[in-house]
Design goal:
- It is a single chain.
- With 415 residues, the chain is α/β, with parallel strands linked by helices.
- The protein folds into 3 domains: 171 residues, MoaB/Mog-like domain (Molybdenum Cofactor Biosythetic Enzyme, Chain A, 3-Layer(aba) Sandwich); 77 residues, 2-Layer Sandwich (Alpha-Beta Plaits); 156 residues, CinA-like (Maf protein, Alpha-Beta Complex).
- It contains 14 helices and 17 strands.
- A hairpin with a 2-residue loop joins strand 16 and strand 17.
- Helix 9 runs parallel beside helix 14.
- The radius of gyration is 26 Å and the shape is elongated.
Length: 415
């Protein structure tokens, strides 16, 4: 069964906003076992949108459209799809009542007339209630083809798809598609693939696919089976083998768990507290940690010591160390980690100092050079990295490696 995505909106064509909807839908459709060969972005133009819809319906079983369901004149998706599929528009009383309810406590004293446009739907369409906006989602079915219309704002589209469209698509398949993710940090995609190459080469059901992320590699294992239980039985031994080969580089097998979540979970498990001392990353590590619900139980404090003066004042880095070795050095990183742990009374502290660029690099210390240290009790681990890329990329990679250093430090000392 083939699926195609049409993203509607001139702002997408002009690059004013990032098309995260297509990324989300592409990944979700792959997990559902749907084949996707085409994606289209089209502006708010009735003729061009009509051509895109007709073309997509001609070569795909399912067409998912996002955007263009609003109340204004340039919102054309519903009308264009209805015309392409030979459906007349009629008022849906249920949707009209929902629009009334939505505006009941709104700042508007009266409902703008153009909002009633959203209560007009193609006759016979399946109406999907939008709990986060006024435009309902719609499923149009005709002659074995299906057009699924979803609102453009991600905070409306994502829950609507997850709660209502995904179960609908799942029912169209004779078999269930189940996936499980193995998340790896500290190895490149080529290294991971090399260790799993024999498994990948002989894959049938389940299948194995690797995805490169910033500082991470995710391995998705997907099985097709009549039931979730059968799929799980197919997946389980493959995941077990991957974990065996990857060892402590695996930080999670949960789809929703991020690296920082895994770190917080590990700290909680061993009843440990942590602190951060950051220079080039400017508080990004602390920010990732505090984004995790419940991080306050384990995260004590974070220092951003960008200047040498701040390193001396808050972390007690020795003046002679800075003078002799410089701010970006193994010795400074070590003293930053020790000072952070002592200043906060934490069980461990991770410290980062480096050259994120684009300026400031030398032949001896080029841009991308980063030292990080983790102090755990009397033991301090220091690591050196030479990252590539622009300033943002260097900082992102540093954050991932620092979080992973905390994770590995706990594992090495507590397991």
């Amino acid at each position: 069964m083939t699926v195609e995505i049409i993203s509607v909106g001139t702002e997408l064509l002009l690059g004013n906003i990032l098309n995260t909807n297509a990324q989300f839908l592409g990944e979700k459709c792959a997990l559902l076992g749907l084949s996707m060969y085409n994606q289209t972005v089209v502006g708010d133009n009735r003729e061009r949108l009509g051509d895109a819809v007709v073309t997509a319906l001609g070569r795909s079983d399912i067409v998912i459209l996002t955007g263009g369901l609003g109340p204004t004149e340039d919102d054309l998706t519903k009308e264009t799809c209805a015309k392409a599929m030979g459906m007349e528009l009629a008022e849906d009383r249920h949707t009209r009542e929902r629009i009334k309810e939505y505006f009941k406590n709104n700042i508007y004293k009266e409902i703008p007339d153009n909002n009633w446009k959203q209560a007009m739907v193609p006759a016979g369409a399946i109406v999907l209630d939008n709990h986060n906006g006024t435009a309902p989602g719609l499923i149009l079915e005709k002659d074995g083809k299906r057009a699924i219309l979803l609102p453009g704002p991600p905070d409306e589209m994502i829950p609507l798809f997850t709660e209502q469209v995904e179960p609908y698509l799942q029912k169209l398949r004779p078999e269930l598609i189940v996936s499980r993710m193995v998340k790896i940090c500290g190895m490149g995609e080529s290294q991971v693939e090399d260790k799993l190459l024999d498994l990948i080469d002989k894959q049938t059901n389940p299948t194995i696919a690797t995805y490169a992320k910033t500082g991470e590699v995710h391995v998705r294992v997907t099985a097709s089976a009549p039931t979730a239980e059968v799929a799980d039985r197919l997946i389980r031994p493959v995941v077990k083998e991957i974990k065996k080969r990857m060892g402590t580089f695996v930080y999670s097998t949960k789809e929703e768990e991020t690296l920082e979540m895994a770190v917080v979970r590990l700290l909680k498990k061993h009843e440990l507290t942590a602190a951060t001392a950051e220079s080039c990353t400017g508080g990004l590590v602390a920010g990732r940690l505090v984004n995790v619900p419940g991080a306050s139980e384990v995260f004590k404090e974070g220092f951003v010591t960008y200047s040498n003066k701040a390193k001396r004042k808050h972390l007690d880095v020795n003046k002679n160390t800075l003078k002799k070795y410089g701010a970006v050095s193994r010795e400074t990183a070590k003293e930053m980690a020790i000072g952070g742990a002592l200043a906060t009374g934490s069980d461990l502290c991770v410290a980062i100092t480096g050259l994120a660029g684009p300026d400031g690099g030398t032949e001896e210390k080029p841009v991308g050079l980063v030292y990080m240290a983790c102090c755990f009790g009397e033991k301090v681990t220091v690591e050196k990295y030479q990252f590539k890329g622009n300033r943002e990329k260097i900082r992102e990679q540093s954050v991932v490696r620092a979080l992973d250093l905390v994770r590995r430090t706990v594992l090495e000392n507590k397991n």
